[in-house]
Write a structure and sequence with these properties.
Elements lengths: L20 E5 L2 H22 L1 H6 L8 H6 L8 H9 L3 H7 L3 H21 L1 E5 L3 H26 L2
Antiparallel strand pairs: 1-2
């Protein structure tokens, strides 16, 4: 029999209550990985910042293969232009091209900060979710991408 207020066995705990996230030391290989991830994200931000200049000079990335073959946008089509519009402060065009773009744009800055902080401090946050919680998070991400894609294809255009 479980006592009142006891935590179910399926939910891991950080030991302090609250969110199931703990702080752990980062291995040297993890520091390098975090610096590489931060570098890739910074390069992506730089590319989207100068996108309109590159586009005018015909130096942009190639057309999406899914779009090229089917004539329909893939779930991620419009992401680059969405970020480029966010750099210009044009939220409406950013959302029109990729409904989830502004959230990803803000999240990219958070991720760069987190990766650099982890690399410098040698500490990382490790989520300790149960299998059911991970499934719920995955379902939420898939539902968000599908909702964004549906809006793009049927409502907003590309």
């Amino acid at each position: 029999m479980r006592s009142v207020g006891a935590r179910p066995a399926s939910l891991p705990s950080s030991g302090r209550g609250g969110l199931p996230i703990l702080t752990a030391r980062v291995l040297p290989a993890d520091r390098i990985r975090n610096l590489v991830f931060a570098g890739v994200l910074v390069l992506w931000l730089v590319y989207t910042r100068v996108y309109w200049v590159l586009h005018a000079a015909h130096l942009g990335a190639p057309v999406c293969p899914f779009y090229y073959v089917t004539g329909h946008p893939c779930p991620f089509c419009g992401g680059t232009r969405s970020f480029a519009y966010m750099w210009n402060g044009d939220l409406s065009n950013s959302v029109r091209l990729y409904p989830f773009g502004p959230a990803l744009f803000a999240g990219t800055f958070v991720a760069v900060g987190a990766f650099l902080t982890e690399a410098v401090t040698g500490r990382t946050l490790k989520p300790r979710f149960s299998t059911e919680q991970w499934k719920g998070i995955a379902a939420g991400v898939v539902a968000t991408v599908l909702m964004s894609w549906t809006l793009k294809v049927f409502v907003l255009g590309n």
